[in-house]
Amino acid sequence: MSIPALIACRVRRVLAPGLLAVCLVLPLAGLASPWPCERLLIAGNSEYPPFLWQPNDDSNELKGALPQLLTEIFDGLEVTANVRHIGSWARVQKLARNGDIDLVAGAFMTEERAGYLDYVRPAITRIPTVVWFPRGREFPFRRWSDLEGKVGSTLIGNSFGQAFDDYAANHLRLETVRSIEQSFRMAMAGRVDYVLYEALQGRVKLGRNDWQDQFTASDQVVSVENLYFAFPKQSRCNTQALREAFANALRLAQNQGRIDALIEENISRYTHH
What is the three-state SS of the chain? Predict the structure, then answer.
């Protein structure tokens, strides 16, 4: 890690007391922090439980597995993680492109996004996307072409991987909306034929709204994509040193099962609110 020579490696407890110990490169007493920012503005897709969700419509707070994980990691780096709801997923991406936020909490990789985001490896997890059918109006789905001639719905600005995005742009009719609940309501009302959404996120959204009996998911996945944290290239807080320190802590959390534990914990928290 390329930071000033007079540094010390201190062992701090992060990612839940007693679970992990991370050796972090931090400045000796009296020296300035190696990071350009002591506080990061972090945002993501607020329609993404159990990873991220807005507890109520009037709240700027975001709950979920990712805010918890980020707080634990950045506490170890002596940086404040300010994870906030700042609008729709499309607006988050626009702010990231301009460098008006400092970290995107959860994004698939696309060619467009790679132009303005520095993705952190390892990935957080892998996310399968499925077709959600209104019960009783299912149709065969084995390949993407089976969606042609149908009308689907999903979130504005959502990606399901570069290959599918390119196919959908040329062959499919998708009505995009600001909230996935709106997509499900449109399907129940017969305004669209299906909802395109991730398998886990769809299941917990339907469960929270008591709609689980109104929909079935396709056995065939639409895509399976890696979910990443990503630092906007234009953020003044984005440095190689910070990205590397963050990636090391993320890898340790993954190896010790902390991410999986937080996902399971927040599935229960979201569906039994």
Answer: CCCCCCEEEEEEEECCCCCEEEEEEEECCCCCCCCCCCEEEEECCCEECCCEECCCCCCCECECHHHHHHHHHHHHCCCEEEEECCCCHHHHHHHHHHCCCCEEEEECCCHHHHCCEEECCCCCEEEEEEEEEECCCCCCCCCHHHHCCCEEEEECCCCCCHHHHHHHHHHCEEEEECCHHHHHHHHHCCCCCEEEEEHHHHHHHHHHCCCHHHEEECCCCCEEEEEEEEEECCCCCCCHHHHHHHHHHHHHHHHCCHHHHHHHHHHHHHHCC
